[in-house]
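new request in #modeling-help
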Amino acid sequence: MSLDKQFGVGGGSNPDPIGRILASDETLMPSSGFLAEVMGRVKEEAAVPAPIPFPWKRAVPGFVLVLCVFGWILYKAVRTAVLDTQRFELTLPHLSTAVGSALAPAAWVVLALAVSLLSWVCAGRMARGSGLL
Amino acid sequence: MTSTISRTKENPDQDAADVARVQAGDTAAFAGIVSRWQGPLVNMAWRYCRDRSRAEEMAQEAFVRAWRGLKGWRQESAFSTWLFALAANVFRSELKRFPAVNLPIEEIAEPATAAKQHDVLEGRRREEVVRRAVLALPLRYREPVILYYFHDMDLGLAARTMGMPEGTLKARLARARDLLRRRFPHLNEAPHRGPESTKREEVSR
C-alpha cells in the first residue's frame, strides 16, 4: 500500500482524516523584522574576531618535557624492578615495596592527568549542552 | 492551504551565487538567502513546536548556524537539502533542551464531541488537537511525520532531510499513523457517520 493511501491524503472517496488534517496545516508568514534580526545576529558574529588558534608550536616543548618525564619514570621503575629481582636475598614483599615506592610519584601524575582529562571532557559536554559550542 | 512552503521561492542559481559570495567573505549576501528561505524555515520550525515566537527563534538560530557552516560547506548536495538537514538538527536539539509538549500521547485528550457539520470553529479546534498530538509522539516517529507533511508528502525529500533511508522513514510513518489512529479512533470513524447516527449519538447523551 502506498503511503498516500495509508495516510489517505491522495484524495479518493474515503480519505484518512488524520492524513488530511496533517496535510492541510496552516502556513505562517515570518514577522516583518525577522530578516533584520537574523542579519543583525549574523553581523554580530561576523564582527567577533576569530578564536585564537591553539599554540601548537609553543606547546610542543611542554609535550616533549612531559613525555621525557614519563619515560624517565618508566625507566627508573623498570630498572629498579630489574635490579631488585637480581638480588636473591630479597623476598617478595621487599620487591613489591621497592617497585611500589618507585611508582608512587608516577601514580600521582597519572591521577592528576586523569582528573584534568575528566574535567576537560565534562566542561566540553556542558558547553555543548548549553549551546556554547 | 496545502503546504508548498518548503519549495517556495526555491532558486538554485541565486542560492549558489549568494553562497559563493558569503564564502568569499561578503556577509551582506547572506540576506538574500535568509529572504528566500525565511518562510520555509519558520514554517518548518512551527511544525516542530507549534509556537510562533519560538518557531522564529529556532529558525533564527538555524540561519545563524547555516551562516557559520557555509564557510566549510563543500556543496555535495543541493543547498535546500543541506539547509533543511541543518535546520532539522537545530530544531531537534532545541526541543531536546526544552520540549514543546511534555505530555505522552496517551494523555492527550481526544475532543469529547464530534464536530458538527457546519461548526467550523469546532472543526478547526479538533484539527489543531490532532496536529498538536503529533508533538507528543516519540521523537523517532514525530520527526518523520513533521517532515513528510512539511515537504508536501515527498518521501525522498523528507528522508534526505533526516539523513535516513526511505524505507526506514516509511516504516516510521506507518507506525506514527498507527499511534495517531489509536489515539483518535472517533476521528477515523467520522467520515462513515451519517447525519442520523450523529443525531442518535447526541440524543443518547
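bot summary: Chain B has two domains: 1-100, 106-205.
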